[in-house]
Amino acid sequence: MASTSLIPRKLLFGNPNAHGAELSPDGTWLTWLAPVDGVLNIWIAPTDDPRTAEPLTRTKGRPITWQDWTKDGRFVLFTNDENGDENHHVFVVDPKTRELRDLTPIPGVNAQIEMWSRQVPGKIVVGLNDRDPRWHDLYIIDLGTGARELLWLNTQEFAGIGLDWQMRPRYARSTAPDGGTRFWRIEGQEVHHWMDVGHIDGWLTWPLLFHSDNRRLLMKTCVGRDTAAFAWIDWESGEETVVAEHPRFDIQSAMVDPITYDVEATSVMGARSEWIGATPAVEADLALLQRTLPGFEINVSSRSDDNRKWVVTAYKAEQALTSYLYDRDTGAITELFRARPDLDAYRLAPMQMIETKSRDGLDLFSYLTLPASVQGERPEKPLPMVLLVHGGPWGRDFYSYRGDHQWLANRGYAVLSVNYRGSTGFGKSFVAASEKQHAAKMHDDLIDMVNWAIGEGIADPAKIAIHGGSYGGYASFVGATFTPDVFCCSVPVVGITNLQTLLESMPPYWAGFAEFMYRSYGDPRTEEGRALLAERSPIHKVDRITKPMLIFHGANDVRCKVAESDTIVAAMQAKGIPVTYVVYPDEGHGFYKPGNRIAYIAMAEAFFAQHLGGAFEPFGDDLADSSHEIRAGAEIFDLAEQA
């Protein structure tokens, strides 16, 4: 019988055993990510015998987080940076010789893979911002030799350039003065205005990919509708043919044929994900998978070129990701590997989907996890609770296995995640309701759900913490300064304290995104905008902080710079307000090295135990393999006693 005892942090947050499987185009080989000497690397094996797997790479330092085959099956691609600064390089490795090469060996440059295509084998298109850090020029790189040829000099200052499968630039986008999006058509070297999409529609409207005939473009669009649909746009006539739409939720993703790129199925994500609009053949496949794996969320993550072999991933709240090989000819579904099999020894907690109303009538979808020992949907008495706030803010929480939910629930807390206004997936009106509502109605949504949890007898009003990263870090700072009586403590991670400095210090290659950010948050170029940004910035309300705070940041963060946390810590210290501050000198916008991640979780857990009263796993050696620097308030951890 599965145990409800304390789950070791390393089982929840250490390296997964294996995940991210990709099929070679001919379906004969599999690659995936798994540890080599504690660092996630690429492994390879014959598809029919995964047990003979060997490492394809043996990189040190930062983990590899993504990999895929080139369309001709000759190489495997991946990207990585050195220290979290997002200056990614593009790497290629030969599966036969194991030779690893850096295709973009240029220091201080952000490289982006833009295209790899079976119609132009042996080459990829990469965007590089070495000429001007604000804008990416496009280059064709020969995978065999590494030779680089200029494809498009981006003197027009486009935020993005789209290509067809012949690697020809066909469209581009830039930001309109009102914060919306301006699209352009490219014909050879000539650029013509295509269409303007307003600020509200721009949140959910963008091109996805061309059909293999290079004459039709698949777009996600909410123009003329509230929820985003998928539609084919005839490139010559402009005629739009809707492929899939939903009256309440945005279309989330599409399964497309690996050769023709015909749409075979689409999905939406309401409270849970749902496949819709499938072709008869794929509908039968999905039905078989769902019958075989009842209760699981199912995704098709990779397919062979002949579309006969699929890699299928499945998960649910109580079970981490499992990868399967599905043979469409035989109907065989073979387990490849599980991301965290050691968790089988423990009883994980289910996740509840909650639908409520905000104070001004918006539909709020939230996710609640209670300790696994709780019988039913409500605890016998109110529990300490952690409000986990997602980043973005243009992202969302969804039903899934979540290590953070399982960790905190296992320690005795109720865990609540809220899709506040601005979260995506619920239509453009829901996103539009967030405009300039940071630390205002967006925060009201969080408070409304905290009050709901109190009213339902779930949360002890005296023991509620707020925690999150990026925008969730900002929300945690807001919780400590705008609503200090609601939360007994806060844990911001790579968060924002000053909206003006955030907007003035964005990465240079976000230049094409600037007008959108100004429209969404407030314009730092105007007196009115600066006043609004100051009003909504926690840095200007430090004297309201009355509850304990634990702050984490990566020194190399280029999105929310470490100065965001430095300044509020200095202001708190100047006013004699206690604070604990932890910085990782080799991380950026998040903590990716396993040792750093485990140490962050361990310190946060100790902090929650002190202020919420839940269970705590002693540090043991969980801080040993970490670069963290405790720059203020180290005494709260009592490291000598906890070690």
Automatic annotation (TrEMBL):
Stored Gene3D superfamilies: alpha/beta hydrolase, TolB, C-terminal domain
EC supergroup of this enzyme: hydrolase
Pfam families reported for this sequence: PD40, Peptidase_S9
Ranges that cross the membrane: none
GO molecular function: hydrolase activity
Its EC number(s): 3.4.-.-
Domain spans labelled Peptidase S9 prolyl oligopeptidase catalytic: 400-614
UniProt keyword list: Hydrolase, Protease, Serine protease
Keyword Protease: yes
UniProt xrefs under PANTHER family: DIPEPTIDYL PEPTIDASE FAMILY MEMBER 6 (PTHR42776:SF27), SERINE PEPTIDASE S9 FAMILY MEMBER (PTHR42776)
Protein name: S9 family peptidase
Species the sequence originates in: Rhizobium oryzicola
